[in-house]
Design brief:
- This protein is an alpha+beta fold.
- It has four helices and twelve strands, in the order αβββααβββββββββα.
- It has one domain: Beta Barrel (Thrombin, subunit H), CATH 2.40.10.120.
- The strands form two sheets. It has a six-stranded antiparallel beta barrel. Strands 7-8-9-12-11-10 form a six-stranded antiparallel barrel.
Length: 299
C-alpha cells in the first residue's frame, strides 16, 4: 500500500514539475520577446464618426475615440493594423444581419488618426492603403519623422506548426498606463488554401499585433477573418464564439507583399485656396507745376 502511495506521489511530482518547467520556459520566452520587440508595437488612437441607419427607426449618429494596436514595419513609420479595428463597419453590418435587410447600413468615418510612439510623442497619421480581403490597413505619418522608428522585419517569417504557442505583444490602455503586455494563443488549425492562415483562439488576442514563436521568430500579424452567414449558418454563437468570425495570423511575407503597394508618403492635406488678388485702383492724376511757365501753367 505504501509503495502504491509513494508511486502516485512521485508521478504527481514529476508531472507537475514538468508542467512547471514548461510554463517557466514559456514565461521566459515571453519576457525575452517582449523586451526585444516592444518598440515595434504602438497604440493607434482613432477619432471616428459613426452613422447607423435602421429601417423604420431612422439614422443614429455619434462620435467616438478608440485605441487599437499597430505594428511598425518600416523605419519611416509605416504601420500595419487590422482594417476591422480602424473601420469595423463591414464586420458590424455582417454580424448584425445587414445581409438580410438592404436598408440596414453602418458607416464609419475616420476624422483623425494619431500614432502614440514609444517615447511619448503623438504623430498624426493617415490610412494610405486598405485590403478588405486580408483585413489589413496601412498607415503613415503625415509629416516626416525626426528619427527612424524601430521596425519589424517581416521578410524573416517563420511557419508555426499546429498547436504551437504564439506570443503576441501588445500595449494596454490608458487605465494601465499603457504598459506592455503579451497574450499567448495556440495555433488551433492551419488553413492552406487559398493562402496560409494560422487560426488562433479568440482569447485576449488584439488584431494588429505581431505574432512570434517561442524561439523569437515572427510568424505574422493577427487579423480578423470573417464570412457572411449562409443559409445553414444563422450566425449563432457557440462556446462564446461567432462561427463566422476568427482571429488568424497572416504570414509576415504576405503582409510585406501587400505593404509594397503603400504610397511612399501620406497625401498632403489640401491647402486653402488663395484669395484672389485685389484689382489695383487707377491712380489719381498728379498735378505738376512747371517752373517758369506762364502763370504757373499745369501739365
Amino acid at each position: 500500500m505504501k509503495h502504491g502511495v509513494m508511486a502516485v506521489l512521485l508521478t504527481s511530482v514529476l508531472l507537475f514539475g514538468t508542467a512547471s518547467v514548461g510554463a517557466d520556459e514559456l514565461g521566459q520566452a515571453m519576457r525575452t520577446i517582449l523586451a526585444a520587440q516592444k518598440p515595434v508595437v504602438i497604440t493607434i488612437r482613432l477619432s471616428q464618426k459613426q452613422k447607423m441607419t435602421i429601417p423604420e427607426s431612422g439614422t443614429q449618429e455619434n462620435e467616438s475615440m478608440n485605441e487599437v494596436t499597430g505594428t511598425v514595419i518600416d523605419p519611416s513609420g509605416l504601420v500595419v493594423t487590422s482594417l476591422s479595428a480602424t473601420d469595423p463597419s463591414a464586420l458590424m453590418q455582417q454580424m448584425m444581419g445587414g445581409q438580410d435587410d438592404p436598408g440596414f447600413k453602418i458607416e464609419v468615418e475616420l476624422t483623425r488618426v494619431v500614432l502614440l510612439l514609444e517615447d511619448g510623442k503623438e504623430v498624426d497619421a493617415q490610412v494610405v492603403l486598405r485590403d478588405k480581403d486580408l483585413d489589413l490597413a496601412f498607415l503613415r505619418p503625415t509629416t516626416v519623422l525626426e528619427k527612424p522608428l524601430a521596425s519589424l522585419d517581416l521578410a524573416k517569417s517563420a511557419k508555426p506548426e499546429q498547436f504551437d504557442p504564439l506570443i503576441l505583444p501588445k500595449k494596454l490602455g490608458k487605465v494601465a498606463n499603457r504598459a506592455y503586455s503579451a497574450a499567448v494563443a495556440r495555433v488551433e488549425a492551419i488553413i492552406e488554401k487559398p493562402r496560409s492562415l494560422y487560426v488562433l483562439g479568440m482569447q485576449e488576442v488584439s488584431p494588429g499585433t505581431p505574432a512570434f514563436l517561442a524561439t523569437g521568430e515572427c510568424a505574422g500579424i493577427a487579423v480578423v477573418r470573417s464570412i457572411a452567414p449562409t443559409d445553414d449558418s444563422d450566425g449563432g454563437y457557440y462556446g462564446n464564439q461567432d462561427p463566422n468570425v476568427a482571429i488568424v495570423v497572416l504570414p509576415g511575407v504576405d503582409v510585406l507583399e501587400i505593404a509594397k503597394q503603400a504610397p511612399a508618403k501620406a497625401a498632403e492635406a489640401p491647402q486653402p485656396a488663395a484669395a484672389p488678388a485685389a484689382t489695383p485702383e487707377p491712380a489719381a492724376p498728379v498735378s505738376v507745376v512747371i517752373p517758369n511757365s506762364p502763370q504757373g501753367a499745369k501739365s
